[in-house]
Amino acid sequence: MAQSELEYNLAGGLLLTIREGDFGHLQEDLFNSGYRYGCLLPFRALTRKEGIETLKNSPLQIVHIEEA
To answer: Is pTM, for the whole model, over 0.90?
Structure first.
């Protein structure tokens, strides 16, 4: 069976996008669930350098960045 190309909008885990640690766990859990692609909006976890760093180490490939 071919691998799905579904992408997850990280804003769907809204409560987990507030703190950087939770944001990182959300990305890992999604990857472990079979997601490989992500979409994001500029949300609170990305307002600090630490939030941006989680994306550099993300197991998800970010394919879309939407405007707020």
So the answer is: no
Q: Coil, strand, or helix at residue 66? A: coil
Q: Which of 39, 62, 43 is nearest to 51 (CA)?
A: 43
Q: Is there a contact between 51 and 45 (Cβ–Cβ < 8 Å)? A: yes
**What's the rounded Cα separation, in Å, for the pair 48 and 56?**
13
Q: Note the pLDDT tens digit of each residue in 29-38.
A: 999 999 999 9
Asked if residue 17 lies in contact with residue 10, where contact means CB atoms within 8 angstroms, the answer is: yes
CB contact at 8 A, 31 and 55: no
Q: How far is CA 7 from CA 26, 36, 46, in A?
A: 14, 7, 19
Query: pLDDT by residue (tens digit) across 16-64?
Result: 887 778 888 999 999 999 999 998 887 766 766 766 777 888 899 988 8
